[in-house]
Automatic annotation (TrEMBL):
Pfam families, alphabetized: AzlD (PF05437)
Native organism taxonomy: Bacteria, Bacillati, Bacillota, Bacilli, Bacillales
Annotated TM spans: 67-100
Keywords: Membrane, Transmembrane, Transmembrane helix
Name listed for the protein in its UniProt record: AzlD domain-containing protein
InterPro entries reported for this sequence: Brnchd-chn_aa_trnsp_AzlD (IPR008407)
Domain of life of the organism encoding this protein: Bacteria
Length: 107
């Protein structure tokens, strides 16, 4: 199998484009402490990303307008609210969606 130079250059460019945005902030920000407002702002990023992924899956999902994911999400939200446990929240959501899909396939 022959590897072309254009492929190697493209691979190196893709690696560089991927690496720079990840490493550059780490190098720059590791030398000085972030102000409190910056740390507070950065603490909201994981929640925002998870919300965007969840909203896309729930409201633009490929299940043809099924309410099953919304019901499972409501159950998972209730579990999260009352237990504050990530494990219980995830297990509740997975169990509810599995039971609902099984019930829908049987009926």
């Amino acid at each position: 199998m022959e590897v072309r130079w254009s492929f190697l250059l493209m691979l190196a460019g893709a690696a560089l484009v991927t690496l720079i945005p990840r490493v550059l902030p780490l190098i720059v920000l590791s030398k000085k402490p972030l102000p409190e407002w910056g740390q507070n702002w950065l603490s909201h990023i994981p929640i925002a990303v998870m919300s965007a992924l969840l909203a896309q899956e729930l409201f633009v999902g490929s299940e043809g307008g099924s309410l099953l994911p919304l019901i499972a999400a409501a159950a998972a939200f209730a579990a999260a609210y009352f237990t504050r446990s990530l494990l219980i929240t995830v297990v509740t959501g997975m169990a509810v969606i599995a039971l609902l899909r099984y019930a829908a396939s049987v009926l």
